[in-house]
Structures are given as structure tokens and as C-alpha cells.
Design brief:
Length: about 90
């Protein structure tokens, strides 16, 4: 579900580790989601996709949560015929 650039960035940001298995995509995403678990669980039930914009294989998904007043976004891109997220977590709208 993650774009290749997002996976590469996560691995780079994870820092040095003597355990190679700690630098896999699944290990890094699991650690990140554990850090944000409480927030994600609270918001998930109120998620509503409000808009999707697509142009030339690049897109933006805009959503709202009842727990946050401002819209949130996740950029997406098409890789090998599949839509993938460019970021692991959503961010606020400018």
C-alpha cells in the first residue's frame, strides 16, 4: 500500500540498527503505528473520504475525521497499475 519512495524514506529514517530485520518495511511501519495506535483507533470510526483528485498518475485523497476540525490529506501515486500512498500517515491541509 506504500509507494516505493515512502518505503525508502522510512528505512532511511529508521536509523542504524544491528538487527537487519528491524529495518524491514513491515517492522518500521508496525513500530510507527504502535506509536500512534490510540489516536488512529479513536479516529478510524469517523473517517470520511470527502474528495479524491487525480491527474497523470498522481492523486490526493482528502478526508475528515470527527476528532479533528481541519481536513486531512494523503498523497497517492500509481505504481505498476496500483494506487499507493506516498505517506504513511495523513497530514493537515495547508
Amino acid at each position: 500500500m506504500l509507494a516505493s519512495t515512502a518505503v525508502e524514506a522510512l528505512v532511511e529514517e529508521s536509523g542504524d540498527s544491528t538487527d537487519p530485520s528491524a529495518r524491514t518495511c513491515s517492522a518500521i511501519v508496525s513500530k510507527l503505528l504502535r506509536l500512534h495506535h490510540r489516536q488512529l483507533v479513536a479516529a478510524l470510526g469517523t473517517l470520511k473520504v470527502t474528495m479524491v483528485r487525480v491527474q497523470a498518475g498522481i492523486g490526493l485523497v482528502v478526508m475528515r475525521f470527527a476528532t479533528t476540525p481541519e481536513p486531512r490529506k494523503i498523497p497517492v501515486r500509481r505504481e505498476a497499475g496500483v494506487w499507493k500512498m506516498k505517506d504513511v500517515l495523513d497530514s493537515g491541509m495547508p
